Amino acid sequence: MLRPMLLCATAGALCFAQPAAAQDSAELAQELAQMRATMAAMAQRIDALEAELAEADAKAEAASAQAATANETAVAASAAAEKAAKSPTIAFKGAPEIKADGGWSFKPRGRLQYDTGFVNAPDSTGREDGWGTNVRRARLGVQGDMPGGFGYKFEVDFANSEVAVTDALISYEAGDVEISVGQFNNFQSLEELTSSLHTSFIERAAFTDAFGFIRRVGVGVQYGKGDVLVQGGLFSDNMDRLSNQNWSADGRVVFMPKLGDAQLHLGGSLHYRSYEDGSTVRYRQRPLVAFTDERFVNTGNFSAASETSYGLEGALISGPFHAAVEGYWHQVDRPGALADPTFFGGYAEVGYFLTKGDTRGYKGGTFDRTKPANPVGKGGMGSLQLNLRYDRLDLNDGGIIGGTQDGYYLALAWKPTDYTMLLANYGKLQFSDAVHPAAGGDRSYGVDVMGLRAQIDF
User: Fold this and answer.
1) What is the pTM of this model?
2) CA distance linking residue 26 with residue 405, whole number of Å
3) 276 phi/psi in degrees, rounded to 5
4) Is the pLDDT of residue 2 over 60?
5) Please, which residues have CB within 8 angstroms of residue 145's CB and are 6 or more apart in sequence?
6) What whole-number distance in Å separates Cα of residue 41 and Cα of residue 334?
7) What are the C-alpha distances in Å from 365 to residues 175, 263, 345, 347?
8) Which of 178, 189, 190, 187 is nearest to 153 (CA)?
9) Where is 359: in which H helix or E strand?
10) Partners of 408 in beta bridges
11) What is the DSSP string of 182-240?
């Protein structure tokens, strides 16, 4: 009976075991399917990551290549900039100005001034008058800088087919101090040191020519800082008349502060000149213009051992208005017991621009270039300036009768551009003790003068 019971139990167990085994197989198959799906998804993700990695590598390589190219470009640009910095540059300031590395510069310069007009003197004086014309200045030159603070300037004048050296100098600049050696203007007078390109009348004040203000060979030192300018030098004579015996010393001090928008100029100068034994001097002057050889004031030649002079100068520039005044006293020391005459020259002037926005230029203790606010070629007419001047020259003193000249001048200056000018002057000159007598021996009379100038410079 036990056997049948065992068989029955075994059969029952088998009956219960078959459904359980079937159930486990189904679950296993499902899990396997899920694992396959997961692995497939992981494989897809790995493929995607590999693709992204490959793309990132490609981008990195491209970026690296671009960086290398940019670096090469930067290096090339730096090299080109360095090369350009060392290469000459050309600017234009009336003429080409070439600048190179190390402090080198070179600029040609020049000017042309053509004058014409008339002088009308009393017929009874017998003096030649009427229309006259001349080439007042025809200059060519060069100027520039050299390494180490050195500079140079050389200029020759060919006016009226006569060749003369004007400026010929070497300079050295160290901070606020400049030293010049060669031929150049002595340190006398605001009017004399202002370039002929920038004067307000066709000629400078009468005393500058009468008292022999010319360029001389020598050495000069200049100190300029802020509002103060101090100049001094020792000189011999002009290149074309070097005697190696005559010498002179000159000094000038200028105070030039700004008063708001206005420019003030106050200055003084001192001059001493020693002549070799047996020298004579002569002081004379033309009536305003240089195209006449007539002089109505003239001391004639007289002996001189030395001369001592001093001058005072003042000026103001405020917008379109300017004013200037100078006085100059010139004493001649005569040998022996002869009287020592003191002659005088001076002027006072005012000027006003009729065109809007224009003002007179000023730089370094002298009047400088006027630059029209609205030049021709840029929609304007240039600058138009009206000037009035009283000019006095007295050559009577110490037994010397050279005459006196009082000039009343009117000037109209038109500057179409920075480097061109047309200038018209009228002058009424009154003489006393003139060297050329009129009818009846009269030495006091008037002379009318008209002068026109066409000017260009570079």
Assistant:
1) 0.81
2) 138
3) -70, 160
4) no
5) 103, 104, 105, 151, 152
6) 123
7) 18, 11, 20, 18
8) 178
9) none
10) 390, 428
11) EEEE-S--HHHHS-TTS-SSSS--HHHHHTT--EEEEEEEEEEETTEEEEEEEE---GG
The rounded distance, in Å, linking the Cα atoms of 413 and 428 is 18
Residue 428 structure tokens? 């009424």
Q: Which of 418, 245, 402 is nearest to 330 (CA)?
A: 402
- Could you tell me if residue 186 is left (phi over 0), alpha (psi between -120 and 50 degrees) or otherwise beta? beta
Query: How far is the C-alpha of 450 from the C-alpha of 268, rounded, in Å?
Result: 32
Query: Both ends of the chain: CA-CA distance in Å?
Result: 145
State the Cα–Cα distance between residues 451 and 268, nearest whole angstrom. 31
Q: How many CB atoms lie within 10 A of CB 454?
A: 13
Residue-wise pLDDT for 7-28, tens only, equals: 444 444 444 444 444 556 787 7
Among the residues of 410-458, which ranges form H helices?
none
Sign of CA dihedral 7, 12, 15, 17: negative
Residue 305, classed as helix, strand or coil, is: coil
The H or E element spanning position 314 is strand 306-318
* DSSP H helices in 236-368: none
What own/partner pairs with CB < 8 Å and gap ≥ 24 does 149-157 have? 149/103, 149/173, 149/174, 153/184, 155/109
Cα(236)–Cα(406) distance, integer angstroms = 32
Amino acid letter for position 115 = D
The number of residues making up the chain comes to 458
Query: Which of 262, 254, 191 has its CA nearest to residue 225?
Result: 254
Identify the H or E element spanning 131: strand 130-146
Q: Please name which of 221, 231, 273 lies closest in space to residue 251, comparing C-alpha atoms.
A: 231
pLDDT tens digit sequence for 117-168: 999 999 999 998 999 999 999 999 999 999 999 999 999 999 998 999 999 9
- The residue-averaged pLDDT of 230-248 equals 92
Residues 6+ apart with CB under 8 A from 347: 191, 205, 206, 207, 324, 325, 326, 389, 390, 391, 392
The confidence score (pLDDT) of residue 322 equals 98
CA distance 73 to 66: 10
**Given pLDDT bands bounded at 50, 70 and 90, which one contains residue 412?**
very high
